[in-house]
Amino acid sequence: MTDDIRNRIRTIIAEQAMLEPDQVTDEATPADLGIDSLGLVESIFALEEEFDISIPFNANEPEKSEFDISNMGTIIAAVERLVAEKGA
Amino acid sequence: MSRKKSDGPKGARPAPAASSEALADAGIKAPQVAGTGGLTGRGGLRRVVITGAGTINALGHDVPTTLAAYREGRCGITQLEFRDVERLSIQIGAQVHDWTPETYFNRQQILLYDKFTQFTLLAAKQAVEQSGLHFEGALGFRSGVVLGTAGGGLNTWDENYRAVYEEGKNRVHPFVVPKLMNNAAASHVSMEFGLRGPAFTVATACASSNHAMGLAFQMVRSGAAEVMLSGGSEAMLCFGGVKAWEGLRVMSKDACRPFSANRNGMVQGEGAGVFVFEDYEHARERGADILAEVVGFAMSSDAQDIVMPSAQGAERAITGAMLDGGLNPEDVGYINAHGTGTAANDKTECAAVAHAFGHHADRLMISSTKSMHGHLIGGTGAVELLACIMALRDGVIAPTIGYQEPDPECALDVVPNEARDAKVDVVLSNAFAFGGLNAVIALRRV
Predict the structure, then answer these.
(1) At the topology level of CATH, where does A2-87 sit?
(2) How far apart are CA B378 and CA B397, in angstroms?
(3) Handedness of CA B163, B164, B169, B173 (dihedral sign)
């Protein structure tokens, strides 16, 4: 289940970044992947649609968001948490 | 706004300021506008003055109430109240309260007027009344209206989409189209006052009103019209309107704090502002009370990004407006900022102002009244022009309220939290829209 979520997130981000999913490593930041602020907002929307979750994110203060976008690892962890909370 | 009689603009318009290196770098040249035959202004151009003003917005239903709010630093942002608001993640806005259209319009008019048209007509009536103008006879053929709006009849779209999609109805009211069209407000203003010259609507998102007023200025200055009603309106505070903005994730959930380091986004407002732009000689001959002179206007396009602003594009509009008005940077005492309270706008705007004005940037005042009336999108420049007129006429600079923490990237005098008494002779009003479309207007005290 967790691997499945991880792969689906990678696929979504890879599509946004126009990369292959295996190029989306846990250490990569959105900037590393060439995702700008509008691309990030679009990616977050795509994740919300894919998992039917609501991601708290304000583009004006991304660092203060409860949704940690530091790198792919933190994004995956945050999505997994939101998916788990939804199922709980 | 006090209504003392004015002696008219002081002296002749000065010769154009020598173009600065920044202007030359930006490739800006003096405007090439055909003269209209030996009139009073520079290069055969007419001088343009404002002889009437009207508004309705979250701060008040007229100009005096709005200016009082500017002086007090009163905030018009509250919890939003409309159908389905509980389904929004953003639930604050600068909404017009106690709006009863039946006070101003009959049943048939209400069926035809979307809220953005209602707001426009009320503001236009106030402005025309203050100007004392009547448009019967020849003047009507030499007068027109150009207004800005981004969303037009958005409430009408929203209500009727709900009816056919959500409620499954198969029939809508016959006036849906004439009610929602973006030019509806301009057309009704032309009908209300008998303005038979140029009449149209400009849609440049958050710069719509400034583009509209700039065009009105150019038309009176060139002699294409004697009088132009201009400004703009917006009524986007409905479920669909706010839901669309939520998607961009640039809206604040708690307050609009322009230039403050802890700002976290914009807050939407609604309302209208309308002004009477009049040929100076025409206004002088009839002894009109002149509120301010419109002296310069410039527009530019970033040609870069659909949402992220460019400091260079903004700077070209600022320096262009000064050059158009024959102004030196040192002449400018106050700027009404675009100042949306987003991370992107405020630092870009401050960089543009700092670069355009050089050392003088540290001596001028710049404030964002969006902290009080919210962001009226296509109507915002019109409501903000009232703060410019107040600065020139009453010597009161409207504050940027909600300011809490200095931001090194916005290190200008943003007139934090309290209005300030100051005598200024020239002011600018900035508008920088999504799509990279910039429009800046310069006004002078008379």
Answers:
(1) 1.10.1200
(2) 23
(3) positive
pTM of the entire structure? 0.90
The answer to whether residue B1 neighbours chain A at the CB level (below 8 Å) is no
In a domain, B6, yes or no: no
Residue B184 belongs to what domain range?
Answer: 49-444
What is the spatial distance between Cα B128 and Cα B144, in angstroms, rounded to a whole number? 12
Asked if B264 reaches chain A (Cβ–Cβ under 8 Å), the answer is yes
Query: Alpha-carbon Rg of chain A, whole angstroms?
Result: 12
Contact yes or no for B443/B294 (Cβ under 8 A): yes
pLDDT tens sequence across B301-326: 999 999 999 999 999 999 999 999 99
Structure ipTM over 0.90, yes or no: no
- How many residues in total does chain B contain? 446
For chain A, domain boundaries: 2-87
Domain count, chain B: 1
Residue B304 CA to residue B58 CA, distance in Å, equals 34
- Identify the CA nearest to B197 among candidates B232, B222, B178: B222
* Shortest Cα–Cα distance, B249 to chain A (Å): 5
Give A43-76 pLDDT, tens digit per residue: 999 999 999 999 999 989 887 778 899 999 999 9
Question: CA-CA distance, B104 to A27, in Å (whole number)?
Answer: 62
